[in-house]
Amino acid sequence: MSQTDSTVAPVSTSNPMALNERWEEIVTDERNRWTDSDGDEEFWAEHVDTYEERFVNKPAGSSRIRSLVGPSDTVLEIGPGTGRYTRLLAQRADVVTALEASSSMANRLDRNLTAANCRKHVEIIEREWPSTDIATHDWVVAGWSLYRQPDLHECLDRILETATQGFVIIDSPGCLPPHRRVAVRAGDTLASPPPRQAFYCGLLADRGCYPSVETVPKTRERRADSKATLLETVLGDAVEDPLAHADALDTWLHEEPDATDGTWCYRYTLPAAVISYVDGAPNQPPGEGENGTQAAPAEVDR
Ligand SMILES: C[S@@+](CC[C@H](N)C(=O)[O-])C[C@H]1O[C@@H](n2cnc3c(N)ncnc32)[C@H](O)[C@@H]1O
Q1: Which residues does the annotated region (Disordered) include (predicted)?
Q2: Which of 52, 59, 130, 201 has the fewest CB atoms within 10 Å around its CB?
């Protein structure tokens, strides 16, 4: 995209907020399980079966993706996981390249796409972003997958180089779900999630790139046959006696006697950040977007 042209001077060269350095400190914080690819692979191998169970509504940013990606477009998806976004992309785009680091996730993605009858539009590549040569694509989509990039500046540069039309990044705006807040109060030394959109936007501004940011609510839930099992599922890794913390989570716990997939439900809503950029969009500095292309109007994500 034009932001990486040598003719476009970076807006700031003084690094006033040291965003890349701070980001690296956060993603390499050893309290996080994802600091290296082995730890991450182990985590996904354990959670691949239950990953999609917790999402109640369509993935955050779906409407935005749908408004941007057209039937003749190519898309690189970074970290597709089980394919929540890939299924949507495969229905919209001509070709999707799905770059997935975890072999457990890549296998599940293959099965899920076949079951959803959209496997033929997707090439699955089992490799790490960005340590690989990837051809340019019209769009790059990264849903909740840039959390262990030690050099975010380089990562975003590679996204700008790879995407000829634009990108959509979906990530956390920096908030803990209720069970993790309870775990922290009980002494668990979890690192706080950063407001990732601030890092993306700050570092992209250094490249003369000004994305749109939309914050949308997303509901997640876990279910089990009893309250005790449910509390063990959500808190068992973090506290010794999960049942002792039932009161603290009371607002989000309820019983649904007629449910077939578990009568006890833990449900909460958190915001998600949808960061999108369209090359040549009107929100870019003067001199950019001279080819007259306009951003598609953003749809409200529900
Ligand atoms: C939280 S899951 C998100 C999956 C999917 N995008 C979604 O929103 O449902 C993160 C995924 O990104 C993958 N991932 C993390 N870092 C990666 C990297 N550097 N290269 C490729 N995949 C990566 C993980 O293996 C995992 O499948």
Answers
A1: 279-302
A2: 52
pLDDT tens, residue by residue, 162-202: 999 999 999 999 989 999 899 888 887 776 788 999 999 99
Q: Residue 4 phi/psi, 5° resolution?
A: -95, 0
pLDDT digits over 67-126, tens only? 999 999 999 999 999 999 999 999 999 999 999 999 999 999 999 999 999 999 999 999
Whether the per-residue pLDDT at 7 is higher than 70: the answer is no
d(CA 302, CA 296): 18
CB atoms within 10 A of CB 227: 18
Residue nearest to atom 26 of ligand 1 (CA): 81
- Taking the centre of ligand 1 as the mean of its atom positions, its distance from the CA of residue 76, in whole angstroms, is 13
Query: Could you state, in order of their start, the residue ranges of all structural domains in the chain?
Result: 2-176+190-217+270-278
Which residue in 105, 43, 38 sits closest to 237, CA to CA?
Answer: 43
User: Which of 62, 64, 145, when mutated, tests ligand 1's pocket best, judged by the most ligand atoms within 8 Å of its CB?
Assistant: 145
pTM of the model: 0.87
* Residue 171 beta carbon below 6 angstroms from any ligand 1 atom: no
Cα gap 48→240, rounded to integer Å: 25
Q: Which atom of ligand 1 is nearest to the CA of 129?
A: 20
Given the DSSP bridges, would you call strands 163-171 and 95-100 parallel, antiparallel or unpaired? unpaired
Which residue, by CA, sits nearest to atom 13 of ligand 1? 79
Shortest CA distance to 163 belongs to which of 196, 139, 198? Answer: 139
pLDDT digits (tens, 9 = 90+) for 116-168: 999 999 999 999 999 778 999 999 999 999 999 999 999 999 999 999 999 99
Residue having the nearest C-alpha atom to atom 24 of ligand 1: 79
Q: Residue 271 is inside which H or E element, if any?
A: strand 264-278
CA of 41 to the centre of ligand 1 (A): 10
Centre of ligand 1 from the C-alpha of residue 78, in Å: 7
